[in-house]
Design a protein that fits this description.
The structure is a single chain. The relative contact order is 0.06. α4 links the parallel β2 and β3. About 2% of the residues have low confidence. α3 runs parallel beside α4. The strands form 3 sheets. An 11-stranded parallel β-sheet has the order 1-2-3-5-7-9-11-13-15-16-17, with no helix packed on it. The chain contains 5 helices and 17 strands. It is an alpha/beta fold and 296 residues long. The protein is 16% helix and 28% strand.
């Protein structure tokens, strides 16, 4: 019969990893288990908060986040994941939490603004939040307005996900990207968004680019992509009238459900998967490996 092991007998790093997967209110509750567990939760490398799941008669969601950040002991916070709605988290508080996490040398920031029916609120991601040189990964979720009138400084950022975010104007996109000189992976998902005319991606260091765009607003013209180091391009859907691509080092590309994306840069691709109209394939004769799924 196998001998049972108490969780307290596990390696400390493993215990902290397990606690990182548990909701923060559950993690904090472990402090009552014993004297040894009283402060253990303060060393958990990942903090995740979701206002939608939070219900307590003793303290508000904002108080919980504040106390958790102020009680945090390690010098480096590996991940801060915040899912919040305007009913339980004020924008001023959220900005303060993010800056507090930055002071803990944050490596990964995930922000998700929870949308409720009949609400028109939004959270504004400004230049003051683009000032963390330790941040490696940034993921912005739906209904977050990117309003960046001047470039920030995220010198260590390598991964950026913009999932149904909104933008004040074309410059906000350029200023966000120009503050990330080491960016390697960019994921863009867009739908109905009318404030952008040209979505410009000019990132010399970028190696992976994924775009999923079903935006059909008349104001949007298309993408201007200047990425000399790009190795992989994936476009899940794209219906814009213009698409300019400068990616001489492109190695692999997946182009799906696109009828009008033509670029000489694709000629140098070693592997290309297409789901396009028949008129799109005549210029691809020099491609080394080609898999074509043609739709009529």
């Amino acid at each position: 019969m196998a001998e049972e092991m108490n969780i307290g007998q596990l390696d400390e790093n493993l215990i902290l990893k397990i606690l990182s997967l548990v909701p923060i209110k559950t993690v904090v509750s472990t402090s009552v288990l014993s004297k040894e567990w009283q402060s253990r939760w303060k060393s958990v490398p990942k903090l995740k908060f979701n206002s939608e799941d939070y219900q307590s008669e003793h303290q508000t969601f904002s108080e919980t986040v504040y106390k958790s950040l102020l009680s945090y002991e390690p010098e480096v916070l590996d991940s801060f994941h915040l899912s919040f709605g305007s009913d339980k988290a004020d924008a001023v508080d959220v900005v303060h939490w993010i800056k507090t996490a930055f002071a803990l040398h944050l490596r990964t920031l995930v922000l998700e603004f929870l949308i409720y029916p009949y609400e028109v609120d939004e959270f504004i991601f400004t230049s003051s939040l683009c000032t963390c040189d330790t941040l490696v990964t940034l993921k912005l979720g739906s209904l977050i307005l990117v309003d960046i009138p001047a470039p920030g400084s995220m010198k260590s950022l390598k991964t950026l996900h913009l999932i149904h975010a909104f933008y004040t104007n074309d410059d906000s996109i350029c200023n966000l990207l120009s503050g990330c000189p080491r960016l390697e992976e960019l994921v863009v998902e867009r739908s109905c968004e009318y404030s952008v005319k040209f979505f410009t991606i000019k990132v010399p260091s970028l190696q992976i680019l994924k775009i999923y765009d079903d935006n059909d607003e008349d104001e949007f013209v298309g993408y201007v992509i200047d990425t000399p180091s790009l190795k992989y391009l994936e476009i899940g859907y794209l219906g814009c009238p213009q698409f300019s691509l400068n990616a001489p080092g492109l190695v692999a590309a997946y182009i799906g459900s696109v009828s009008n994306v033509i670029s000489e840069s694709l000629v140098s691709v070693r592997r290309l998967v297409l789901n396009v109209s028949t008129s799109m394939v005549t210029f691809l004769c020099s491609i080394f490996f080609l898999v074509i799924s043609i739709f009529v």
